[in-house]
Amino acid sequence: METQPSILIVDDEPDNFDVIETLLADEGYQLHYAPNGQNALDRLETFQPDVILLDVMMPGISGIEVCQTIKTDPRWQTIPIVMVTALNTKEDLARCMAVGASDFISKPVNSTELRARVRSMLKIKQQYDDLQALLKLREDMVNMIVHDLRNPLASILLSTDILRFPGLTAENQQKKVNQIAIAGHQLQALIDSLLMMAKLESGKMVLECSKTSLFAPCLASVQNFEAIAAQKKVKLTTRLAQPDGMINVDPAIFRRILDNLLSNAIKFSPPDNEVLLLANYLEPGGAKIQVVDSGPGVREEFKQGIFEKYEVGTLMKGVSQIGLGLAFCKMAIEAHGGTISVTDNRPKGSIFSISLPSA
Ligand SMILES: Nc1ncnc2c1ncn2[C@@H]1O[C@H](COP(=O)(O)OP(=O)(O)OP(=O)(O)O)[C@@H](O)[C@H]1O
Ligand SMILES: [Mg+2]
Q1: pLDDT tens string 150-209
Q2: Ligand found nearest the CA of 265
Q3: Distance between Cα 352 and ligand 1 center (Å)
């Protein structure tokens, strides 16, 4: 129900449709009309309304049968049906409910009642749709994460197998050990991101801030990525504007923020490119940190979105894109009172900038 909710009105009397149309005129709905049961069922093949208002007594297929057909078809089951009926006995109403109608309204239709019932049905439908979307997202996410955990794990297992091979040269041994280390880091980063995000979101993450040098975590993070960068032939450069100074951050979380930005810059850069980490201390306790790359850059329309969870912007071939890293960075940096943003590098690439406010 992104834009205007749509309502299908099924009634053999066009006059009745006109009445309902008038009564719902100002509610901002898209109204569709079907003059009989068969027509209604045919229309459902190509279009899914958010609510159906269904006349009970119609020539041909009765409202009860239409309702039954809709409610037994998995494609349409979840559309709420409000029976519109001149019948008033408890038995009639019970019959409507028995075939799966969500609600009913008696003829002649009262305008306040009609609007209230339609609104309430739309609300339920919306909640249902949102829940479905969430479940789908969760399922996709679990699949993605399992997939992304499996890749580095497979690489570790393969490398350990090769290491057991007796005739392996020292050089090849070293190569395999490096691969194991890289895959291990990937696994660790992924698991850490998931855990930290969950903690941040539940409000359970308490920052344990302490005074730390600005340069120390920058250097540690760059060192952490040297092997991965070398493997991709990406040149990692650090430019730290002297002098260093003390910032007040949670050291572990701050490191993870830097790691995420470097990981992205290296991951999305083509080989033989340079990734730059710039850090500037700003008296008294503020800092500006930038990670600059010459990769594909971030398209204008994704510059906000990529900081949301599971938003991955432009899909890139051969790179794992889960969409957690920047969401974590944003949450974490904001928890420190800072900001994060992305701008374009010239002639190409992106610049991710973190600002830590002065204490
Ligand atoms: N340096 C970059 N250059 C180009 N695109 C980038 C860069 N950094 C991030 N992006 C885009 O933003 C998206 C979101 O990044 P984010 O770090 O949140 O997730 P991810 O890298 O896809 O997965 P992970 O959860 O493993 O970090 C990426 O998928 C990518 O499309
Ligand atoms: Mg990332």
Answers
A1: 888 999 999 999 999 889 999 999 999 999 998 898 888 788 877 777 777 777 777 889
A2: 1
A3: 11
Task: Name the token pair of 195.
Answer: 């855990």
Report residue 341 as tokens.
Answer: 């943003």
For ligand 1, which residues put their CB under 6 angstroms from it? 193, 260, 264-265, 268, 293, 295-298, 306, 312-314, 320-327, 350
| pTM score | 0.63
In the chain, which ranges are E strands? 6-10, 30-34, 51-55, 81-85, 103-106, 210-213, 235-241, 246-249, 274-282, 286-293, 339-344, 350-356
Domain architecture of the chain: domains with CATH: 6-109 (3.40.50.2300), 137-201 (1.10.287.130), 210-356 (3.30.565.10)
In whole angstroms, give the CA distance from residue 207 to residue 13.
66
- The residues, any chain, with a CB within 8 Å of residue 260's CB and separated by 6 or more, are 189, 193, 325, 326, 328, 329
Residues with CB under 5 A from ligand 2 (ion): 264, 325
How far, in Å, from the CA of 331 to the mean position of ligand 1? Answer: 15
346's enclosing H/E stretch is none
